[in-house]
């Protein structure tokens, strides 16, 4: 399908035009996204990014003009930019997240007292998180254990991203206070 044929199809039937675009260029988009996220993102991250590329394409279909270049080049640029954004987001998330499981599963030393203390701290932390109540418990678990962004959490909990950020900040403050005062007992 030529670029002109695609534009005509989009004008006649946007649904058929979108389907044709996906059928023709999904392999290219997947290859571009996979090359950028390889080794960093999971398969789901790659698939999410590919979906994001097509959403951006459909939203900006009016932005494509033949004089500016080919449709293939236009799609490639959007795919590359979207993949780089996803790479940055995933890199940031991985660099700032520390899992409780990592701390409790790795033997710090051969000292059994230290091992028991670590497990007790992890259990205390879980108890405090659960005592925060909903939606704060869900927000913290999704944020730090499932590594979801505020936007993803907001979508899942039917809240705004700003509300998720504020509740997370307050919940972490309450959690810190509870741990300092030993209120988990």
What does this structure look like?
With 185 residues, this protein is mainly α. The chain has helices at 3-12, 14-37, 43-59, 71-96, 100-105, 112-131, 136-144, 150-157, 161-181. The longest helix has 26 residues, at 71-96. The termini are far apart. Mean pLDDT is 79; it is low at 101-107.
- What pattern of helices and strands is seen along the backbone? HHHHHHHHH
Helix % is over 70%
Share of residues in strands: under 5%
Average pLDDT, to the nearest integer?
79
* C-alpha end-to-end distance: 68 Å
Largest sheet: none
Structural shape:
elongated
Topology:
Blueprint: H1 3-12, H2 14-37, H3 43-59, H4 71-96, H5 100-105, H6 112-131, H7 136-144, H8 150-157, H9 161-181
Summary, kept brief:
This protein has helices at 3-12, 14-37, 43-59, 71-96, 100-105, 112-131, 136-144, 150-157, 161-181. With 185 residues, the chain is mainly alpha-helical.
Search tags:
185 residues; 0% strand; mainly alpha; 9 helices; elongated
